[in-house]
Structure of Solute carrier family 66 member 2:
Amino acid sequence: MEAKGLGWLLVPLHQLVSWGASGAIVFGGVVPYIPQYRDIRRTQNADGFSTHVCLVLLVANILRILFWFGRHFESPLLWQSIIMILTMLLMLKLCTEVRVANELNIKRRSFTDCKDEELKAAPKRSCLDFDLHHFWHWSSFTDYVQCVLAFTGVAGYVTYLSIDSAVFVEMLGFLAVLTEAMLGVPQLYRNYRHRSTEGMSLKMVLMWTSGDTFKTAYFLLNGAPLQFSVCGLLQVLVDLAILGQAYTFAHHPQKPVPHTAHPASAKAL
């Protein structure tokens, strides 16, 4: 009798837990970037944040949205991608503004600039012949937006032409989540190369691990496409490998190879 009496309470409670998990998935990925954004804004220094993190996450989440058109998955995962794209654009805008303000004698570099130095004195041309050496190191936020729109347009057109191919759709899904899953690999490689985790925040890695574990469990319990679960597990393994490096190098310290200090990497949950 008591069980029946509490039934009205259990259903809303289950729904609240479900909503909470969905909310954590949608917004959890951007939480680490909030203090990063505030720090950059407060210090007016973006040297500690690599804009290549934004590049990887923009590509991964644009591909994930395109994958949704071929194979619908959980709505929170779709919204997560949309929120992450907007967040990365905001980070790029702030980093670009800060960098330009700090570089008094900045050399103008643009996504649509030509290589010929003489042409740079002329009005801006849309020749799309940018210098790869300066790729993703432009002086205007507009250039980043143009690049993102160009990539989205090309990828979207290819997806439109191949949307009926099950093989293409599945490969697109794997490429999307694999790109994001590889975001922790540069940190893993850097630690291995220098035989040290100096400058790496252990709390940050623990946050990665807990977030990726929660995310992978969500994928498995909600029947997300196989790509999400496999790459989620891969992310957890990379996180555990980094934690293993931290333990090993702390208990068996070796003389680190001389190197230039690099800013700590950032990663989406």
Q: What stands out?
A: Confidence is low (pLDDT under 50) at residues 117-127, 259-265. The chain has one domain: 24-251. The chain has nine helices and no strands.
